[in-house]
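Appendix C reproduces, verbatim, an entry submitted by the partner laboratory led by Prof. M.T., so that reviewers can inspect both the input and the predicted structure.
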Amino acid sequence: MTARAAVIMAAGQGTRMKSPLPKVLHKVGGRAILDRVIDTVEASGCEKIVVVVGDHSPAVRQLVEARLGKEAVAVQDQPLGTAHAALAARDALMDFEGDVLVLNGDCPLLAPQDLAPLFAMREAGVALAMLAFEPADALLYGRVIRGADGHVLRIAEPKDATPEELAVKVCNAGMMAADRRRLFDWLAKVDNNNAKQEFYLTDIVGIAVAEEAFVKAAVAPESAVMGTDTAMQLSQAEAVFQQRRRAHFLAEGVQMLAPESVHFSWDTQIAAGAQIEQFVVFAPGVSVETGAVIRAFSHLEGAKVMAGALIGPYARLRPGAEIGENAHIGNFVEVKKVKVGAGAKANHLAYLGDGSVGAKANIGAGTIFCNYDGFDKYETHVGEGAFIGSNSALVAPVTIGAGAYTGSGSVITRDVAPDALALERGPPVEKEGWAARFRAAKLAKKAKK
């Protein structure tokens, strides 16, 4: 197989997004769009990836360097068009021998199977393989004009197209693959003799055809090449992503009675036999094992839910939460960086932050793991079979021994031995008749006014 490389164009300013965040750093499925595109080209077998960035977006450069290294960055010093952007990667690929794919950095739904036909055409001897699509509304897109043999003859821009050409449904998606040497030779020949005085990537089609090089197009689904220039397009891409994930999990045997209300992330893992109720959000980093039930209005992020566990309704699992087999995390319970043992229960109104809860322990309503002093975090450990009374405050660092009890309303500041009872309450005070005297005094004061 011919070696493959990719040039991802991510230097656009994204002004139509109207956001301080660069366009390609917005997220679909909880993952930055640019990360998603890099995922796709890596899965397509590209051994070298160059991302073209602009000096106006240092955050984009930081993402690329962190993931691919500094050598993967090429800078487009001025925004002079797509051909100019692609040409900025020439030096970074000077020693590469093989096919180079040029693609946009803002297509979050592009998948390896959408790009596979381009590489297949290259292997079959096509000089320039390009991606096309059939949009529902072709008004603003260049039409792919093909000859009787299927080879592309030219791209007809709408303003220059004849009525017959405007009737063509196949449009240019702006992604192409060619041999590295020929690609950059063609890019160097592109001029800016147009109204915007920009260098357009699509012009290399005409240059290649003029040199009698074969150009062919593969047609991808419209959603695959969907860009995200605006907040509306971003939301549309997210909707397509969610529809796909819901269909995937339903096909895999995950039970959802109202799948349209469940929100997934790119890396969500849910085993067959799990049940997901309405209005559940899976932020990144969540895995759910078989037999678990995630009840309505729960939010999970960076959490692991083991087999048979019951979560919610209205539960929040934050990063580092590990819920053991058949454990219960109930309504208005928040868990962060705590391992909850098998069969343990925290059914109502609790905050469990930093530490562990042993198997079959019971956490009463209103329990708080007091884990933060304003500067540092400390851990609370509740032993197996322990019983934490309602409205207990466990002030970390503290350990409750296996089988121990804490009395309701206690503030536990010291370790509790196994099987012991810990009570930290002030003595009860009752002032007979105080309430009646208080009310009488208040009424008398109001009467004088």
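Residues 231-251 form the longest helix (21 residues). Additional entries are available on request from the coordinating office.
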